[in-house]
Amino acid sequence: MRVALRELCGYRAGDKGDIANVAIFADDDETYALIVREVTAERVKEHFGEFVTGRVDRYEAANVRALNFVMQGALGGGGPRSLRADNLGKALGGALVRLEIDAPDHLAQRRRTRPDVSWADEILAGE
Amino acid sequence: MPDPALPRSVTVAGGQGFYGDTPAAVDALLADGVDYLCLEALAELTLAILQKDRQRDEARGYTRDLPAYLTKALPFVVAGRTKVVTNAGGINPAAAARAAIETARALGISGVTVATVFGDDLLGHVDDLHAGGERFDHLDTGAAYETLPAPPLLASAYLGARGIADALAQGADIVITGRVADASLFLGPLAHEHGWHWDDWDRMAAGILVGHLLECSGQSLGGNYSGDWWAIPHPWDLPYPIAHVEADGTAVITKPAGSGGRVTTDTLRHQLLYEVHDPARYVAPEVVADFTSAQFEDLPDDRVRITGVRGTPATDTYKLLVAYHAGWSGEARVAFSWPDAHAKAKATAAILVKRVEMAGLPVDEWHVEYWGVNALGGPTVPVDDACEPPECVLRVAWRCSDQRTAALVGRELTPLTLSAPPAGMTGSGRGGGSSATELLGIWPSLVRKDNVDPNVRVVLEEVT
């Protein structure tokens, strides 16, 4: 079955020059083994298309069940030079977890909890 | 005060994560009793901003929120309860030190010693160093320094913790540096307090890892967190992080008592890899740290213990950041309503491009985004021309070689208010359109430490 990475992983992106890195985080060993197998540097490079003009390298951090993708030429020339609204690539984490991978049924059926922002409704209603 | 699990620890806090962060968050850190309040004010983008400041006024070039932070910290400093370490000096640490001293005087505080660490600013030396054998090749692309597109406007070496530790050993209460690497701001006081040797690689790595976890303020405690971010307590008053660090490098990361936020292995691992390339080889000025060696253990009450961090010998270079002029940009935004919002936005962008061409205004680069469709996700978002978003904001940005042209391009948008596809509203009046912003290209490189270290010096001044 296919499943989007958003159901399986946390994410955070950062910038250095024209390089963006996106880390994704698995919650257990089985999911980590799955993403190590499925989420290759080649898949990520293909997923980002023209957004990433250079090489993509992948690093493993098994101690925190994470994969780190380092993407060259990912920020339109780098923060102070880029014409992009997201010149620091902060949104690239969310863009990566849109990627769909093949997973065993019991993992593919997982759904991360969706946000409950009822507290925000209360604040905005002036309560 | 020390953590109960680590009775002989030194306590460091991350009171600032960037230029523009909120000084309000340091109140709780100071009240909690931290030995060192570290204020990390710099980023590549920040150095570029400071360079523009310094171009306008030679007395600027430091992060000007420093006095706001010191106003809060100085009563604790003069009482001997905390010391402050900051890289707020940016590209003008002397001016930052003057501002610090004036802040103390304005508060009627005396007897505080301010140290300034110099030696990171290589702008006046890059050509000589290059002539003397430094290659300064682009760190990422490998391009030769001779191909730098314009003369350097700033050239800052990322110094390490030694100048800070030296300043503290000489009795400094407040240490102000220029471009010291973010995590090194925290290693400085830890090495000083624990007497760590500079070739004790595992201790160096432990200090750097702690610094890396604390340098981005709220990002360790539930800020920018991709887990159940909506359930983080008190997100409108997120606390900033504290680390208790033992002499052997063992650390407990936590937050002020009674505050919101959250400290777990999950919130910390998000920060562990932030802006990191190879996590097994995190190249800091003092050490090559192996972040994959760290073991995280969740303790009760928002505390996480970190052990086992390993390091290997430092490289013989510092990172060097050069910035150069890269043209002028402008941008404009227009909002479009349903129906056909995406198609209207695209047509308007094309009409603007055509009008600018007819006006004879040379544009070196166009960038078109459709907010609400795929501005942030780019090619990862599956859209086609038939996509029907409920609304869409067109953002167009452009780059020109001169300031005047960049400003004139935006004016070509104004007539489209009545002469273009139907907008839901005109958004072009805000967010630019007729003003231009200078772009700076950045050129990361390496510089040999033995070309930098002889010029690093610490200057102390007591506020009288």
What does this 3D model show about the protein?
The complex is a heterodimer of chains A (127) and B (464). Chain A has one domain. Helix content of chain A is 27%, strand content 27%. Chain A contains 5 helices and 6 strands, in the order E-E-E-H-H-E-E-H-E-H-H. In chain A, strands 2-3-5-4 form a 4-stranded antiparallel beta sheet. Chain A has a two-stranded antiparallel ribbon with strand order 1-6. Chain B is α+β, with helices and mostly antiparallel strands. Chain B has 2 domains: 269 residues, no CATH class; 118 residues, Alpha-Beta Plaits. Chain B contains 11 helices and 18 strands. A 10-stranded mixed beta sheet of chain B has the order 11-12-8-7-1-2-3-6-4-18, sandwiched between helices. In chain B, strands 5, 14, 15, 16 and 17 form a 5-stranded antiparallel beta sheet that branches. Chain B is globular. At the A-B interface, strand 2, strand 3, strand 4, strand 5 and helix 3 of A face helix 2, helix 9, strand 14, strand 15 and strand 16 of B.
